[in-house]
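Recap for those who missed Tuesday's class. We walked through two folding examples back to back. For each one, the amino acid string is listed first and its predicted structure tokens come directly after. Nothing is annotated here on purpose, so try labeling regions yourself before you check the end of the notes.
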Amino acid sequence: MKRVHVAAAVIRGTDGNILIARRADTQHQGGLWEFPGGKVEAGESVEAALARELKEELGIVVEAARPLIKVQHDYPDKQVLLDVWEVSAFAGEPHGVEGQPLAWVSQRELVDYSFPDANQPIVAAARLPDQYLITPDGLETPELLRGIQKAIAGGIKLVSLRAPNGYDPKYRDLAVDATGLCAGKAQLMLKGPLEWLGDFPSAGWHLTAAQLRKYAAKGRPLAKDRWLAASCHNAEELALAEQMDVDFVTLSPVLPTQTHPDTQPLGWEQAQQLIANFSKPVFLLGGLGPDDRQQAWQIGAQGVAGIRAFWPQV
């Protein structure tokens, strides 16, 4: 069965809301909502296809766009490759040229709409930021909390609270304080035994590679309305993350790091190859900073994650 190549767009308005369209009842996956786009024609670039489809479907002209995510999905009757770009600027007023209903929705509201299964990773990518802060080791609690507060004030929307010295009561107390700091401002990702999941209902969970190997066969350990992430370093762990139905992963180390100086880095080329075979959002980690986002996007990543390069001076 030939895989159908589709160009699709996450179109953001100036207010941050995202444009979605309802599929006609007569279409494949009819009646569900989708991100606008259409088939890439033979010999056509993805950018050209996207521009053409958005002009035909919505009457807009794309002015600024970048790669967001590629998703391969197999339905019983169809195989698709969704080549998704984020459109941040356009000319014209979007309207359903073909009579299709449109809706501008917030990132938070996306989960209230029914999308085809192939679109679920796109929903996640549209809701996630392009930077992922991982808290540093060796700080006293007051300094750590001040740093988290300052990072959020500076625009960080996704925070992983590291537990480098084991999962002890001090980490639980710190998690309570961090949850309060992040409430309504940023998504907090915790680490720890899965037995703690019920104690922090507003937090997402970031699994270690060891946890991924131990629990992947048991499936997703928490509801879809909570974020689930995993640390991955190779194709095997990415496959386990897919099996466990995580929402996103970190892939590391891309470049040499101070934290793990003896670990062989993946490099940009190998990271790109691994991402190409994985259909979930990927944050690249290891020797990277905010200035590396552009290169990360070009190889298919959601963005970059880091510790020192993202930690504010406190």
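Example two. Treat it independently of the first, because the proteins are unrelated.
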Amino acid sequence: MAVFAQKMHTFTTIFLLLLMASSSTALLDAHYYDKTCPQAEKIILGTVYNASMHDPKVPARILRMFFHDCFIRGCDASVLLDSTPGNQAEKDGPPNISVRSFYVIDDAKTKLEMACPHTVSCADIITIAARDVVTMSGGPRWNVLKGRKDGRISKAAETINLPAPTFNVTQLIQSFAKRGLGAKDLVALSGGHTLGFSHCSSFEARLHNFSSAHDVDPSMNNEFSQKLRKKCPKPNKDHNAGEFLDSTSSTFDNDYYRRLMAGKGVFGSDQALVGDYRTRWIVEAFAKDQSLFFMEFAASMVKLGNVGVIENGEVRLKCRVVN
């Protein structure tokens, strides 16, 4: 593991040097807080670690929070803003109702304001925390580019632009392309589902009255579909019922891809990656080689973290409200 970690670090360093040389990342710098808040990453890691020890759901929730933030208006912490009497914010949009653990970011921000007032943005806190939960769960570590500013706009209506668990591959590719991300990024970032859980509502359409020809989605493993039908009957009175997105849901690994190859993807959008020639070969490669998945996931997380970086934002004093 030590040898692999060293190789991974070497690759990431080279990759980031190339990235930082490009104009698209000119605003961001891995050493952005070295002089103004050198303890920033240590404070964030400690906060995330303590929260995860008390609640094992935190890693998956923080990673999902990062995805949902960056896909709407870019990585500007708009997902953290509370609604006001005159505006319904992103966090209250339908796809984000189940996003949780905002308190972890709040706690980190409070500690950072004590250590380095008015310095570390909420957008950077989410980005660093997302990296930390992956590493803590057994996944790769990479250097996070920093220097994002926080946005002032957050609209629930814009959450309609998040990729849905019912999307086919064409829809997914189009959605990711709008953020400057390719098919490999799509498949790699979908691997974030190795952590986490979904309620029945996000996949029950695959289990009952799927189409005029099939009651159950035919791309789903038969034994697996019967298991899910028992967990998610129709009608379903248990609103907490659902399924883990892979069989090692607290460990960041490539089990997600192996399950897709076996027809055991929970979301239709996940299973679709195997059924389309544009993405199947990538799923196959990641299912066979976990170190390859780790390398590509880290690279795609850096790319996603560069989406929508703004120059004219602010550093919020409290992540839930604009200054």
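Answers for example two:
Residues 2-162 form a domain with the Peroxidase; domain 1 fold (CATH 1.10.520.10).
The two ends are 45 Å apart (CA to CA).
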